[in-house]
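Suppose you are handed a protein chain with no further information: no name, no annotation, nothing but its sequence. What can you learn? This example shows the usual starting point.
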Amino acid sequence: MVGAKGALVGIISEGDLLHRAEIGTAHRHRERRRSWWLDHFASEHAREYVKSHGRAVKDIMTHDVVTVPEDADLGDVAALLEAKRIKRVPVMRNGQLVGIISRANIVRAVGATKGAAPREGEGDDRLIRARLLGELGQEDWARVWPEDVIVRDGVVHFWLSDNEPEEKRQALRVAAETIAGVRGVEEHLLPAAVYPVF
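A reasonable first move is to predict its three-dimensional structure. Written in C-alpha cells, the prediction is:
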C-alpha cells in the first residue's frame, strides 16, 4: 500500500491472511497473565488479535516492510529473501515503489543467464560483440544498427536515439548483461532526427 505521496506504508502478503477469524485460523490465547513481566506477551497477543480480526487494510498489513533498491544485486536479494523467510520484496527508487521482485523472478533470471564465469577467450571484445549482436538478431524489438554497438574493454556501448522507448533501452542493457565477459553497459543518447513535414 502506498500513501498519498507515493511512499510505501505497508504490504499485505499471504502470511498476513493466513490467521483470520473468518476461516477459523486465528491464534487463540486463553491463558491469564500471572505476572507483570508477561505484559509483553499480552501486547503481542493484542497485535495478533487486531491482525486476525481487523477489517481495514491498515490493521492487517505489515508496516515494517523490507525493501530493496532497484539496482540491488540479485544474489543479495536472494539472500535477503532467505534470511527474512519472505517470498517477495518491494523494489524502491528514491523512496517510491517501482516494482516487486519475487523468488520466481530470481529463478527465471538465473535460468536466463548464459553461463557462469567467463571462460578463456570470452573476455575478447569482438567475441562479446558478436554474441550480443547474435542475441539481438533473434529479437524483433531489438532493431539496432550493428555500427551503434561497440565493445571496449568488456564494456558495451550503445549509441541510441533519445526518442527510443525506455523499455527497449532497458531490454538492450539486460541483453548485454547476460553475455559472458561483459563488465558494464553504457548508453549514449543522440538527438532524434527531425524530418520536415510537407
